[in-house]
Amino acid sequence: MSNPFAGDGFTGRRGGAGEGWPGGVWEAIEQLRGQFDRKVGMRMGRGDVRAAVLALLAEKPMHGYQIIHEIEERSDGAWKPSPGSVYPTLQLLADEGFIAAEESNGRKTYSLTDEGRRVADAAADNAAPWEAQGVRDSGRASALPKAGIELAQAAAQVGRSGNPEHVKQAVAVLDEARRKLYSILAQD
């Protein structure tokens, strides 16, 4: 019998704990979870990082890590810009005279200059980049697959470590969860 995950980047041993499942399913779940955890949200354009930095600095001075954290928090985890996009944007805004950096406790804290405040005020009527429809949809859409992966991981753990009674109970829980999920759709 061939491994159903062969060629898909999933590897694993056959048999052992979880016997009766397709070969490597436990390892495939772990690898899938790892690949999901490495994703850092949706990819945004350079202009979005710039607009986000200006919008945040219009509220208060911040250092780069705070900016990254604020964007991630305000987008509900859907968008976490990398330091490789935020710090060059900060440097560019400083070069353009829109922000100034002040060194304090070994960190650069950035704040808007008068010119930067004018630019930020002019864009204040626009929705913040983390409020864009695509970002909101991405955050909402990523929660369900993540919960599904975590559920599959828990089921895999019961299959690996549990006794036959544990497995029987887990199957009953999963069957009930499936029925409840379908009932959500039936409520329309």
Output the strand order for the largest sheet.
1-2
Percent helix, as a range, is 55-70%
What letter string, H or E per element, gives the SSE order? HHHHEEHHH
Strand content: 5-15%
Count of DSSP H/I helices: 7
Instruction: Assign the CATH class of the domain at 46-131.
Output: Mainly Alpha
List the helices and strands and how they pair.
Blueprint: H1 25-38, H2 46-59, H3 64-74, H4 83-95, E1 99-104, E2 107-112, H5 114-122, H6 133-161, H7 164-186
Antiparallel strand pairs: 1-2
Helix pairs in contact: 1-6, 2-4, 2-5, 3-4
Gist of the model:
The chain is mainly α. The protein contains 7 helices and 2 strands.
What does this structure look like?
- The protein has 188 residues and is mainly α.
- It has a domain at 46-131: Winged helix-like DNA-binding domain superfamily/Winged helix DNA-binding domain (Arc Repressor Mutant, subunit A), CATH 1.10.10.10.
- It contains 7 helices and 2 strands.
- It has a two-stranded antiparallel sheet.
- The longest helix is centred in the C-terminal third of the chain and has 29 residues, at 133-161.
- The chain is elongated, with a radius of gyration of 23 Å.
- It starts with 24 loop residues before the first helix and ends with a helix.
- Mean pLDDT is 77; it is low at 1-20, 37-43 and 135-139.
